[in-house]
Every structure is written in structure tokens, then in C-alpha cells.
Amino acid sequence: MGPSGAGKTTLLKCLNGQNNRGLSDRSMIYAINNRNIRLCFIKSNVWEHLLSGLTVRQTLLYASRLKNSRITSQLNHNKIVWDLMSELVISDTADNRVETCSGGEQKRIPNMLCIDEPTSGLDSNAAEVIINCLKVLSRRHGMTIIASIHQPNNDILHTFDTVYVLAKGGVCLYSGVPHHLRQHLKDNGIECNENQVPIEVLLTIASKDKSNTTIFNNKHENDVNCESITQTNLRPVFGSLSISKRFSFVDMYYLLSRSLIHTFRCQWVSLLLQFICFQMLAIVMKYCFTADIILPDGCVELEFGAECYQTEADILNEKLIKLNIKYNTCLLLSVAFVVLIVMSVTFGSDFRVFRSQQQNGWYSTGTYLWCRTIVDLIPVLMALPLFCWLTNLYNTMTFYVFAFALNLLVIMCTQSVSQLSALLFINEPKVALIFAILIQVVTVFLGNSLIPVKELHYTLQALSHLSYSRLSFECFVIMIYGLGRCQAPQISTVLYGMEIDDDIFWPNIVHLVGVCVLLKLLAVSVGSGVLGGKEKRILCGICGAFTSGSLNALMGSS
């Protein structure tokens, strides 16, 4: 217990191994010699560990599969789920979606469990059900449960085996059983009459300045004799207690299955709008440009002593060529912008769930990001074939296949950019969207379509080799006006004017694939870094023990 800012959540993260920043060199965590520590940390916001769209049974079923994916023996996951639902008294909600469950049912959804404010947002009856359920779990499974909680009523307080009261600054004022609180206050010269609740008196003191009461000066009397305990029964735990997991195709399969259910149940509106936007864009663009733009081949025959002049037909052909380039450029860029906006908005929606589950050892960062890549590409793969068919003015299978492949590679690059921006600004979706659009604008600027790359500064020319807009644009131009369209001794005026070599088509394709992979690896790296957030040092004088099979409270006023 303790007032806001005392360090209850930070202490939970220290015990869980999620926070190792700001601790002194003398900070140590000890565990029983003959027991391995398996930790789990549940945050106060249920939507940081529950995924909407799934039923209660599906949520627990996928949790069982992901958590036990390393076990080679056959497990009856359905039996595990039914036993757990019966134990948590939620069997009657098995087929209900988690978003329709009450707050108490959502909260009930290792041998050491850290829960941040499990009763927040609940009425007194629901809160009492939650705490009683946690106590049953701690007794039945020999589990140590540590929960931070704000000012419970007297009945809930005495449900806990141990309370741990923190003052501002992370100072421990009391560690012991609840019914000894009144005597503890009396021993420190603080009067507490029969009409006063001892815990409320202690929390009031915890909110005050240290100099206002003698209990801060006598806090050493409240400490457990840690030295004697650690020397006889405990061993120090070195390194992080966080559970990490490597990339696994089994995890990816289960996660992909779960993500598809969530996406098509909860995000079907955005998927439908994305499909409609693709096709409307194709129809509008096709009817804004005539089919005549594909007729000029841009070829000119070089002859000794030839005269350089343009007929009206040549001038018209030049205009049609420019329109054709604009047509394909607009299609390429507009598709990328649609995907960028949709994915930037939807990506951060379930990342907080991933962050909570990844820290509890469900799956790795790479597993999640590759799974998310596939899930986001499924609606694209549904819309892109029709889009490319509608916009294919050449009516050839070769052009259709190349256009589909190039658009898909650009979309995958754009997807990685949207993931990067969402990861960098996970709590600011608007800023993430602006940042993603800014990156897209830079790639277009370096794309050789608006401004010739040769006219830019040499540093920008070097940077343009990472621009997927440039690589895809040059491939489109070569695909239309190169690849043998002009027969010798003719040359393509379009490629010559843009200083594009006909031979760079396949190297550009390979380069584009490399940029796509590089951006994805960068997203995975950034995603891993986001999980290790920075913490300020606000704990001091922490000393005590949490025993196996007990329910412990870190409590405080709101």
C-alpha cells in the first residue's frame, strides 16, 4: 500500500524483472534455493492483456497453446481451459466475447503472479470476488501473488495474508499481517481509536512529509531480518527475472490464428474500407486517363546526319508519354499512402497486448511482427489483384504480374515504415501517423519521379538508393519503355532522358527486396527496444519477504 507515486508499480516491476534501471548496486532479489522462479505481471488495464473479438474460451485456449508451445508431449488444452474457467467461476461466460464481460470477469482472466491494481474500476462486491479468487489460487497452487491496491474496505484488507505499505519516496512503513496494524501504530506513538480504521490512518501518514511523524524514523523496526533469512534459506537471483522466448514457428501459427479472428471480427470495417478505396481509386484513375497514353513507345532511331525536329505527332506523343508516367506514378504512390494510413492507425491497437504478453514469455518480438505482417497483408492480397487488373491498360499478363509484384513490394516496405512509426510513438498514434507520412514524403522526394536524382546533392543521391519509391518507379518505367521495346538502332528517349539504364531492372528488383527486408529487421529491432522502457529511481529501503502460497498487498490511496 501507499500513496500515488510511492513506487508500488515500480516495486512490482522490480520483482518481476521488468525494471532494472535506477536500482542501486546493493539491490538484490532472493529466491528459495530449491525452486525456480516463473513470473507473470498483469497490468491494471485489462485491454493490455485481453484481445477483443475473442471469446473467453478462445482467449484461454490460445493462452494455453502459446504458453505451453515448448512442451513436446500432447496436452489437452480444452481440458486445461475448462478446468481453469471452473476454478475462476467464469464457465457460464465461455462463449461470450471478452469485451462483453463484466469488469470482474475480465480481471480473472506461474508460481509468482504480480498484479497491478486488480480491483481498480470495480465495485466493492466485484473487488471482493476478485481478491477471494486470488486467495483460492494462491492456496491451491502454492502461488505467491503480489498485488498493488488502493484503499480497500476492511473486509478486503483482512483477506490478504500480508500488507506492505509504502510512503512517498518508496520507504516501507509497515510489512506484516493486517490485524497487527493497530498495535504497530500504537508502538510508534500514534493513537488510533476504535472508530478509526488503522490502514486509513497509516495511509494518511504515508502521504505526509517524512519529518511530520516518528514512524519514518522508526521504520527499521518494521523490517524483516533479511540477513538471517537469506543466509539460511535463500539464494540471490542474478540478471533479469523476465521470461524471454525465441522465435518459433509453432508460436507464429497459434498467434496468426488468434490474430486473424481478432482482425476479421473487430477490424472488418477498416478492411472493407481499404478494399473499397483500392477499387475506387483504380476506377477513378482509369477513367481520368485515356487508353491512348500507352500507344507512344518513345523510341527514336539514331542516324548519321539526322535532323532534329518535332512534328505535331511527336509533340502529342511526348504529352502522352508524360501522362502515362504520371498515371503509373500516381497509382503506385496512392496505393502506398492508403496502406500507410490504414496500417499506422490499426497497428498500435493491439501492440499493448503484445507488449504485456511478450514480457510474460508468451512469444518473441519477431514472432509478433512477422505474424502482424502476414495478417496485414491478407486484406491487401484480397484487394490488390482486382486493383491491378482494373488499372492494367496494356492487357498483358506479363505487365499484370510485374505490376502486382512491384505494388506488393512497395506495400510491404510501407507496412514496415508504419510499424516503425507506431513503435516509436506507441502512445501517440497521431504523431506516429504524421511521422510515417513524413518518411513517405521523403522517399517520394528521392524517388526520381518528381525531381531527377542526378540534380540532387551527392548525399541525397546516395540516400536515394534506400528509397523504395525510386526503385519501384524506375522498374515501372523500364517495364513500359524498356525490356526490348525499342529495337536497334533505336533508343528509348524516355530512359535516356531520365538517365535510367535498361539493364538495372532485375538489380532494382533485388535491391527493392533487400530494402524491404532491411526495414522489417529494423522494425523488429525497434520493437525489442521499445519493451525496455526507462524507469525513474523512486524506491529506497525496501526489505521484506513474500512467502509461497500467500496473498500479499502493496496498497495505497488514489
TrEMBL record:
Transmembrane regions listed in the UniProt entry = 268-289, 329-347, 367-387, 399-426, 432-453, 465-484, 504-526, 538-555
Q: Where is the ABC-2 type transporter transmembrane domain?
A: 255-480
Q: What is its main location?
A: membrane
Instruction: Specify the protein's topology with respect to the membrane.
Output: Multi-pass membrane protein
InterPro entries, per this entry?
Answer: ABC2_TM (IPR013525), ABC_transporter-like_ATP-bd (IPR003439), ABCG_transporters (IPR050352), P-loop_NTPase (IPR027417)
Q: From the UniProt record, which GO molecular function terms apply?
A: ABC-type transporter activity; ATP binding; ATP hydrolysis activity
Indicate where this protein resides in the cell.
Membrane
| Pfam families hit by this protein | ABC2_membrane, ABC_tran
Domain ABC transporter as annotated: residue spans:
1-119
State a GO cellular component annotated for this protein: membrane
Alphabetic keyword roster: Membrane, Transmembrane, Transmembrane helix, Transport
List the SUPFAM superfamilies.
P-loop containing nucleoside triphosphate hydrolases
Q: Which family does it belong to?
A: Belongs to the ABC transporter superfamily. ABCG family. Eye pigment precursor importer (TC 3.A.1.204) subfamily.
Which protein are we looking at? ABC transporter domain-containing protein
Q: Which organism is it from?
A: Medioppia subpectinata
